[in-house]
Design goal:
mainly alpha, three-stranded antiparallel beta sheet
Length: about 280
């Protein structure tokens, strides 16, 4: 009786989340158009060239350029697909409600699935918010601080944490989403042959995507994707030393990670002894 009474609520919640996700996607698309159109106009002097040359004794000239538009474009390229994955994760997060009659494997997979989808949703929302804030902040920054000899130095000098946050959370959200889809296919498809085939397809596609991603990261930054979480954590805790809001955010993240590390083994042992 309790499960039947909860089912409509779960369905209603999932239905509402799908509408929220659609509204989020439309809002992001609209705001992206507004940010691009806002950042495009420049004074007549800036339209000619914002590049500057420095030359000293025996040293070749170094061209200083405003790389703000390039970074805005990269942020927009991350934000739009992030909104799509956020909408999909929001609609799928409650698609596998818990049932007291679930077997150990199904009960464990459902819990992991819900955690992965909520993690994917949170990561993609964070990527969207940080990208939007950064894109809005770039046009307002002083031109003196915008000039840099390369895009990499421009990002490192002005938006290192923002760029790392958007990239890492976008990739982390995708990984969580794909793993959750694989687990759902594994337990939802009745035929074990096709269930394993679906899981293998998802795993293969994920590994191929990560291979391309790793190659791109090495080409652009000289680091592999394994360094993305290390870079993000290092920059976040570095900013936390100077800003109290970032300190609270970093502490909350640390507490959550520790709690998950403690709760997962406890849940596993609990299901091992109680599940049919």
């Amino acid at each position: 009786h309790e499960d039947r009474s909860c089912s409509p609520k779960v369905g209603t919640m999932s239905h509402r989340l799908r509408h929220i996700a659609l509204l989020l996607f439309l809002l992001v698309c609209f705001s992206q158009h507004e940010v691009v159109s806002f950042a495009a106009p420049q004074p007549a002097a800036d339209k000619k060239n914002v590049a500057t040359s420095l030359q000293s004794n025996g040293v070749e000239s170094v061209e200083l350029k405003d790389y703000g538009p390039e970074l805005s474009s990269f942020m927009g390229n991350t934000r739009l697909p992030a909104s799509l994955f956020a909408g999909a994760a929001a609609g799928a997060a409650f698609a596998m409600p818990l049932n007291p009659g679930d077997t150990f494997k199904v009960a464990l997979v459902k819990r992991i699935y819900a955690l992965l989808m909520m993690s994917s949703l949170s990561s993609q929302l964070l990527s969207i918010v940080v990208s939007t804030i950064t894109m809005n902040a770039i046009p307002h920054k002083s031109k003196q601080h915008q000039l840099s000899p390369s895009l990499g130095e421009y990002i490192e000098k002005n938006y290192n944490l923002e760029w790392s946050t958007a990239r890492f959370n976008f990739f982390w959200g995708i990984i969580n989403f794909v793993i959750g889809c694989g687990l759902r296919a594994w337990v939802s498809i009745s035929c074990p042959v096709f269930a394993k085939a679906a899981l293998g397809t998802i795993v293969s596609a994920t590994l191929i995507s990560m291979a391309f991603l790793n190659e791109t990261e090495r080409s652009n930054t000289g680091k592999g994707i394994i360094m993305l979480p290390v870079e993000f954590a290092s920059l976040l805790f570095g900013r936390a030393r100077r800003d109290p809001f970032h300190a609270v955010a970093a502490l909350s993240l640390l507490v959550t990670v520790v709690y998950i590390g403690y709760a997962v083994p406890h849940t596993y042992n609990y299901l091992l002894t109680t599940a049919p």
